[in-house]
Fold this protein.
Amino acid sequence: MIKFIQRFFEPTARWDDDDSLMDYILELEDRIEILEEDNLNFRSSIYDMENRLETKISQIHPVTYNIQGGDNV
């Protein structure tokens, strides 16, 4: 608990210069582009799987039971 309090009251780390901050921002932007591309590929794969699954489900025919009402036991 004491370590938590000490960390809480520590001075925050500051960037040495603006170039390192700008480099970090550019790196993050590159990572975002990669993640967006991966997300697009993932969505496309999910969409393809959904279509294949719907096709397979539509090929399945339900079982038809010939049940007649009445006293024909």
Q: What stands out?
A: The chain has two helices and no strands. The CA atoms of residues 7 and 63 lie 67 Å apart.
